Amino acid sequence: MKKMWAPVLVFIAAMLWATDGPFRAKVAADLPSFFIVLVEHFFSLLILSPFLIKTFPKLKNLSPKGWLSLIIIGVGSSALALIFFTESFKLLNPSAAIILQKLQPLFAIFLAYTILKERPHKHFWIFAIVGMIGAYLISFPTLTPQVFEGETWNLHFLGVLFAVGAALLWAAGTVFGRIALSEFSWKETTSLRFFVAFIFLALWNLKDGAFSLIPTLSAATWGYLFLMSMVSGALGLLLYYRGLRDTKASVATIAELGFVAAALLVNYIFLDAILLPMQNLGMLILLFSVLMLAKRQDVVEKTD
User: Fold this and answer.
1) What is the pTM of this model?
2) Three-class secondary structure assignment of the chain
3) Is 74 a domain residue?
4) pLDDT tens-digit readout, 181-219
5) What is the domain range of residue 274?
């Protein structure tokens, strides 16, 4: 495959991630987020098991940096990020939760600078600030955040924290995924990501006794979970890592804008999720900052 098509695969994968919104909203209303994410990873791991079995022998020669990358993309970018995102779906307008994921390019370019030594454009900080202003308007359209309700956290504010946390963890996955791809193929990286995440999630759910929920699930719920894990999970990530192999981390985060475009349409049709005028303004500001960063990240230099 020509390298010019690599960002296109990342774009298609990002659009696939957006298809699970209606299903995620249904199951998130009745099930704990960590249990939902466990089942998603279980189904995805079943599909990817042939790749995983062939990958195990290579782990004995894995470098410390490789192990660190697997832990970060597995526990952080796969398990915790998806838990945070599912929690944000419960507490925020689903479309607002999704648009806040476009903070990923800002986080990813900063992480690529500090970890991969990719030098950002000199105007990065200007557009980063512009992007943060857009994210603030999306998060708090009344312009005044309410952090507490009495002695407890405000649920909307918590939803914003979860959404931003997911964006940060997924940005880390883009950067550390590039490191993992230097030691594994895209198929191996995808299967190992799900395996590491599944082990972490299984231990978490075992501690909380969530496995007792399995007999209570309806056929419809199993169907929703299966579709989420297949389309936006295994298939989406296989395409993503195949494209990411030949795509710069900073460019990949731009291609992931397909996530926003598809998700807004899906959420509007199936969930009646409509943004407030101030949130629409924030979305335009945030996307403008991301596109301007993309325009200036065509050539990524290495620091000394």
Assistant:
1) 0.86
2) CCHHHHHHHHHHHHHHHHHHHHHHHHHHCCCCHHHHHHHHHHHHHHHHHHHHHHHHHHHHHCCHHHHHHHHHHHHHHHHHHHHHHHHHHHHCCHHHHHHHHHHHHHHHHHHHHHHHCEECCCCHHHHHHHHHHHHHHHHCCCCCCCCEECCEECHHHHHHHHHHHHHHHHHHHHHHHHHHCCCCCHHHHHHHHHHHHHHHHHHHHHHHCHHHHHHHCCHHHHHHHHHHHHHHHHHHHHHHHHHHCCCCHHHHHHHCCHHHHHHHHHHHHHHCCCCCHHHHHHHHHHHHHHHHHHHCCCCCEECC
3) yes
4) 989 998 899 999 999 999 999 999 999 899 999 999 999
5) 3-297
